[in-house]
Write a structure and sequence with these properties.
The chain is of the alpha/beta class. It has 13 helices and 19 strands. A hairpin with a 2-residue loop joins strand 3 and strand 4. The site of inosinic acid has 21 residues, from helix 4.
Length: 423
């Protein structure tokens, strides 16, 4: 298998970092293609925890090249801090190990201010991470964005920022009344950061193309999940990028023979952080129990994640949208400690039974229909020996039959080693 993608099949936080990190051990390039430091990938190796926000998970492997593709939005200050943190943890990030597309978009102070001010003032909050993601993608689409290559020419940078600020200035002054740096101050700050990042910057498109031509193994590392996709997700409660199958194509480049395996990472239950519809959300103490045992706090913002029962109509939809060829079922150790198991097999929606979601449906109006399964109580020890109880098998069978995709990977703990391959 030369080229694989790892995609979140829910609302993010499915445990993609762990799966990516596992495959990165035998991969030549790991590529981020969308999102920014709104993501938080927690990786635990030998008990040591590393949280990556922007830098691809391949960075922990010496043999692996990490690429930040042109579809990513980069906060230069956050990236600099992440580089420092990695250095502090003894992970040397050389320019031979990390490459950043010169065409990636820059998250400016203005984008962050706008994100936070809008959320603060809105009566219908999205619950964004406040990292400036949405406004940066808006600038990109409006063709007013700052690109990484702009950081290296002080005058050009200032003039682009001046232009970029023209409309935002009205919002900062009159609508939100927030203080903001002048274009000159912001240009100086970004230019200083640019000097630090410059050694890592280049043409990642041809780097990836040549790696592909040379038969290298490439792993496309998704951030967030299909249900947060700007086009396929639970709009407007989504992020601003294509988190799904299209993302690698538009945000990094995919070359012959194309992506051969798309692994959808699925948490054994479902979580969501931020606002928005969540049909199978649990409001009773079981939800709190899952949240506590699963340590369900956002890796980026520390917010509590909402917890819910497995949702097959959503998973079927995600599998179809993202062309999933395999499922990786994670956090089984958490669900195995819960004495009840309900699985949503269909929705009641507008008076009909629906077993497949679609873009634009009113997710607030769906009523989940549940099947109660016998809970499983497999231990990490038994799973480590590859022993799967009939109860867990029944849950896996139900998922595979409903979705039509095989569960090829089971993950039952936070460590890289706590993974079982079923094929
Ligand atoms: P934004 O990406 O910061 O604009 O946030 C938009 C929505 O996506 C919010 O509901 C966030 O909570 C959610 N979101 C963004 N990044 C992640 C992530 O990495 N995991 C889970 N949710 C995320």
């Amino acid at each position: 298998m030369r080229s694989i993608a790892i995609i979140g099949a829910q609302w993010g936080d499915e445990g993609k970092g762990k799966i990516t990190d596992y495959f990165a051990q035998t991969t030549d390039c790991v590529v981020r293609f969308q999102g920014g430091n709104n993501a938080g990938h927690t990786i635990i190796v030998g008990g040591v925890k590393t949280v990556l926000h922007l830098i691809p998970s391949g960075i922990l492997h010496n043999n692996c090249l990490s690429i930040i593709g042109h579809g990513v939005v980069v906060d230069p200050e956050a990236l600099q801090k992440e580089l420092e943190n990695l250095a502090g943890a003894g992970v040397a990030v050389t320019s031979a190990k990390l490459r950043i597309s010169e065409n990636a978009s820059v998250i400016t102070t203005y984008c962050k201010l706008l994100d936070i001010a809008r959320e603060g003032a809105s009566s219908k909050k999205i619950g964004t991470t406040g990292r400036g993601i949405g406004p940066t993608y808006e600038d990109k689409v409006a063709r007013k964005g700052i690109k990484i290559r702009d950081l290296f020419d002080r005058d050009r940078l200032e003039s682009k920022l001046q232009e970029n600020l023209r409309e935002k200035e009205m919002l900062f002054r009159h609508l939100y009344q927030v203080a903001y740096p002048s274009a000159s101050e912001e240009a100086q700050r970004l230019w200083n950061l640019g000097k630090i990042l410059q050694p890592y910057v280049g043409d990642t498109f041809n780097l990836l193309r040549n790696a592909s031509l040379a038969g290298k193994k490439i792993l496309y590392e998704g951030a967030q999940g299909v249900l947060l996709d700007i086009d396929y997700g639970t709009y407007p409660y989504v992020t601003s990028s294509n988190t799904s199958f299209g993302g690698p194509y538009t945000g990094a480049g995919v070359f012959a023979p194309g992506i051969e395996e798309v692994i959808g990472v699925v948490k054994a239950y479902v979580t969501r952080v931020g606002e928005g519809p969540f049909p199978t959300e649990i409001f009773d103490p079981i939800g709190d129990k899952i949240q506590t045992i699963g340590k369900e706090f956002g890796a980026t913002t520390g917010r509590k994640r909402r917890c819910g029962w497995p949702d097959l109509p959503l998973l079927r939809y995600a599998a179809s949208v993202a062309h999933l060829t395999a499922l990786a079922l994670t956090k089984l150790d958490v669900l195995s400690q819960v004495e009840e198991l309900k699985v949503c097999y269909a929705y009641e929606y507008q008076g009909q039974q629906v077993d497949f979601a679609y873009p634009g449906m009113d997710w607030y109006q769906v009523r989940p229909l549940y099947r109660t399964l016998e809970p499983f109580s497999d231990t990490a020890q038994s799973l480590a020996q590859g022993i799967i109880s009939p109860q867990l098998m029944a849950y896996i069978d139900l998922m595979e039959t409903a979705v039509g995709v095989k569960v090829k990977i089971l993950a039952y703990g936070a460590d890289r080693q706590e993974i079982i391959f079923r094929s």
